[in-house]
Amino acid sequence: MERKTPNIQDIARLAGVSTATVSRAISTPSVVSEATREAVFDAVRRTGYQINLTARNLRRRRTGAIVVMVPDLGNPFFSRILAGIEHVAAPAGFSVLIVDTKQPHAEEGQLFTYLHNTRADGLISLDGSLPRALLERLDGSNGLPPIVFACEWMAGGLFSKVVIDNAAGAAMAVRHLHNLGHRRIGHVRGPQGNVLTSARLQGTRAALKELGLQIVPEWFFDGDFSLQSGVAAARAWLALQERPTAVFCASDQMACGFISELSMEGYSVPRDVSVVGFDDIDIARRFIPPLTTIHQPRNDIGAEAAKLLIERIGTGMVAAPAVHEVLPVELVARQSSGPAAPLVPY
Amino acid sequence: MERKTPNIQDIARLAGVSTATVSRAISTPSVVSEATREAVFDAVRRTGYQINLTARNLRRRRTGAIVVMVPDLGNPFFSRILAGIEHVAAPAGFSVLIVDTKQPHAEEGQLFTYLHNTRADGLISLDGSLPRALLERLDGSNGLPPIVFACEWMAGGLFSKVVIDNAAGAAMAVRHLHNLGHRRIGHVRGPQGNVLTSARLQGTRAALKELGLQIVPEWFFDGDFSLQSGVAAARAWLALQERPTAVFCASDQMACGFISELSMEGYSVPRDVSVVGFDDIDIARRFIPPLTTIHQPRNDIGAEAAKLLIERIGTGMVAAPAVHEVLPVELVARQSSGPAAPLVPY
DNA sequence: AGCTAGTATGTAATCGATTACAAATTGCAG
DNA sequence: CTGCAATTTGTAATCGATTACATACTAGCT
Q: Where is the HTH lacI-type domain (chains A, B) (predicted)?
């Protein structure tokens, strides 16, 4: 048994060549002669040699890793996006490093070490609320790694991003409800200050206005994308004197929480109120009733973001213009939305 | 603007000391004099110097990263476990690297490069079906990194693991149904060959036997933990002449799929059949009806696994005996399970 | 003053690869 | 047989930190 893992020197000795040749045989086989190549590969096989990536990366001035910043790892919404990222990054030779930005240890100082280019060659952020100060120092300008946002983004358009048309999605949801005959439509918002919240809110407002429907402030409920906040919205809905007959929730999780709470209180969806979600998470089609929602291609978002980032890393990340990719959304009509009840209760 | 990021030499020059002193000022501040320390820190501040982790890691012969192997990143069951791992690993100075073992690129050869110690200092696997051949070469013996399994594990007890008592959990579920008066109890299995599948199946069988209930083969449905397989099990249940009055599903996802499909066919839970799940995923408490299930402390599982691994990495990973940690599960009774109907229909 | 112990710093080797440059070898045309 | 280009290989510098060892200096004691 070896005392330690073999290194390139050991291979060189065994194959009777220099380390330079070993390196070449491994990285650019075409430039070494048939015979030497075989000798080297044979030595590699015999020893089980594995290249030391740390050393290679040091010399090549790269890390072979990309960091993904996730607002909340516990939220299943992100799982498929991560899968999409991993699906593209791994074959391209990049490891995927994940950071939960909402963890207490992820304060500005800590985050910066992740962004720094000795840790990763690039960064994908699913969190649009990273401290500005942090990012201004980044994105290629100072030799620091390129950044791509996905799902969420930062105002200003400075950074590349892969997103969906949130306003359009929201408008689709509202129009769908309108088509079903609903004229009193409410909305459960995402968390304050979130870009998705404002985009979906704005889309909702615009569609309501366009359809000539009134915008009733009491019908706009606070939320934060979580199940629990959907529950809270349902309680608020129950407390209303005049209730909207349909509610568009800015996330499926909130829609589930909303329906669940109403159901516990003896109300039924869509009989008593129609509900539309946003995201099309896995459970949506199997919720009871199955959720009408705006489908987001989560896998593709992750994959596209990774593709974009890796491209940037490859091109020496010179201050290329930011790319803004917008992926399509579609309405998936299921059973949580139905025709509006006649104006006068039967 | 600098042409490139500053390195330790630049700091040394600026502070008027040697690189050795800079290194010491940063890693072990107590051994340098007050004055020098200040000079160094000042230079660091002025330049925005960030240590090059690749170089440090090369010299220290470590990577500062741990790899987590996830059977299916798209499955939300794993999200909280990842969060638990990240929560412990990040403050301890380890980055978390994730690999989806079910991706096509994750073949044996590829996987091995992840396991190799130039990539990571240790490995947490949530996948109990890694190729044996792969693992036999690992776990400290050859200077390769230590491994901890979490949730799933590999038969043989060679590796450390953090798990729950799956058989006990299954037995709790069965006993709960028995207490409610059910005498005809079925089970939806996990995927073939999975350790969780067999443990939960075995626990189910044992409890049935202990309670003097019959074990009817037709009441044991195939599944693979997914929503869709729960749907399939529901169809199988519907097709039966003699149906069990209660079904224990080996995962919440299957339980949701099962209930959902029955509901679409006009059946209602728990009126027509009681259902118990396993895992207590986030949506469980908000499903309709809220799911009775076996609660797994997913966050803790991840955190414990990370703690264990990091400990091992710290102690130079000499062939320490494998540690097998078993975390407690508990039954959470909600509304998907109810009293058995009287033997003769009303 | 002379000696010891302790503190602070510098010199240079080292981690394990990559690669610019030089040198050696081979092939072939003239 | 000579000369030149093309191919293959080796030498040694390099990436950016850490650390063993050596050295310089200070303080305290006899």
A: 6-60
